[in-house]
Amino acid sequence: MASPVSAATAIQQLEMSGNPLTGSVSNEKVSPNPVSLTLLDAINRGLKFNLGMLLSEQGNSAAAGARYGALSRLLPNVDARYGQSVQQINLAAYGFPPPAGTSGIVGPFGVADLRASVTDNVLDFQALNNLRAANDNIRAARYSYRNTRDLVVLAVGASYLQALADSARVDAVQAQYNTAEALYNQAVDLRKAGMVAGIDVLRAQVEMQTEQQRLIVAGNEYDKQLLALARVIGLPVAQKFSLADKMPAPEPVNLTLEDALQSAYANRADYKQAEALVLAGEHEVAAARAERLPTIGISGDYGDIGKNLGNSHGTFSAAAFIRIPVFQGGKVKGDVMQAEAELQRRRAQYADLRGRIEYEVRTALMDVDAATRQLQVASSAVKLAREQVAQSRDRFAAGVTNNLEVVQAQETQTAAEENYISSLFAHNYAKLTLARALGVAEDATKKFLGGKQ
To answer: Within a domain: residue 107?
Structure first.
């Protein structure tokens, strides 16, 4: 019986090459004392140190910087300057012939000029629409940050659950090894008593060594998964730590499809991000079209000019202007075409995302339902497999059968234990993906998985 999502498949989906969610940045030092880590501890660390979060924060800063650039075109620009020069002028060079008997050379003389100037676009439709687009892009960046938080919760939660599943495998294989060792010792004692053949001892020894190999592999996988979890949450990879939580007990999710879809459309940050990007694209199209419109502005300056600041006089100038585009060589048409194409792309992505959200919600609910039912079957199968091993061992001890029946029963139990662990992981992982599909992963994870506060 296969579970809806295997542990290996779930983690492979998250650990794609170059995915920043699998990395972290932290300058913490290795503590000599082991750290006990709960699921909520891991999530909080991930939200603080995960590389995806840090990159998303920089995206917010970049969007804010772009807004300042757009705003500057609508605000006055004020400059101040001071100049000191020494000049000597030849009047004849400017068409002023000197009087007879004079050289026509004036100077040298000094000029000092202290002046402030201001320019301002009073009416600029292109700049106004660019500012509106920048405001929408800031909203989109903030929603992207929220969406990244949900993705980090999903990545950390899946990695923690995988570590719990690997830990459960180690415990299960250890118990199976202990059983196989006890069976081997039992076979040796019965062989000495002449009650069983030598093949029974060899068969029991092979089974014991097989379980020993499984234990080595399971322990190694668990240790590697702890390293992967440390990378996601920003723990030094050399830091020793243990998992304080156990695999959450299965609990039903009482949620209708209608309520789930309503929650997803209201809370999914990536959906709101796509909506904000569409609005930004509409303003970018308006800004491109506004390149054809006139721009009205004012300019002026005031300052002191003279031989020096102690011998100067105030001067000023003021002007108003209107700039009318006449011919720009097709630039406006090209900018409008590009902006409209980008807007259509964003609208298509927005419409697709709505359909994808419904798909994700439906499949997540289906996975939760299937995993819950499969977990019930897996739990029953484990109980039956354990009873089968116990009865076969009693039959072997009584000399009714050889230990081939016991070994086969042990293999059945091994498969049942593995299937139960995988089913329990799939059940909890399905609830985690459902929380992500609803857009409330950060809060719902605490409810669905029952992490310690």
So the answer is: no
Contacts for 308 with CB less than 8 Å, ≥ 6 apart = 110, 112
Q: Which amino acid is at 14?
A: L
Residue 324 counted as domain residue: no
- How confident is the model over 348-372, as a mean pLDDT? 94
Using pLDDT thresholds of 50, 70 and 90, give the confidence band for residue 101. Answer: confident
Question: Is there a domain that residue 304 lies in?
Answer: no
- Give dist(CA 86, CA 84) in Å, integer: 7
Which strand ranges, in their side-by-side order, compose the sheet holding 105-123? 77-90, 105-123, 295-308, 311-323
| Residue 346 domain flag | yes
Q: Summarize pLDDT for 28-50 with one digit per residue, the tens.
A: 899 899 999 998 899 999 999 99
Task: Report the first-to-last Cα separation within the chain, whole angstroms.
Answer: 35
CA distances from 76 to 234, 275, 295, 300 (A): 46, 32, 14, 11
The rounded distance, in Å, linking the Cα atoms of 23 and 148 is 13
Residue pair 264/437 in contact by the 8 Å Cβ criterion: yes
Is 305 buried (19+), middle (13-18) or exposed (0-12) by CB count in 10 A? middle
What CATH number is associated with residue 237? Answer: 1.20.1600.10
- 8 Å CB contact between 361 and 257: yes
| Residue from 302, 280, 236 nearest 27 by CA | 236
Mean pLDDT of the chain: 87
**Rg, Å, the chain Cα set:** 38
Domain assignment of residue 339, given as a range:
7-14+33-76+125-169+214-299+331-449
Confidence of residue 198 (pLDDT cuts 50, 70, 90): confident
pLDDT, mean of residues 354-368 = 94
- The answer to whether 281 and 343 have CB atoms below 8 angstroms apart is yes
- What token pair was written down for 290? 């506004």
**Domain count within the chain:** 1
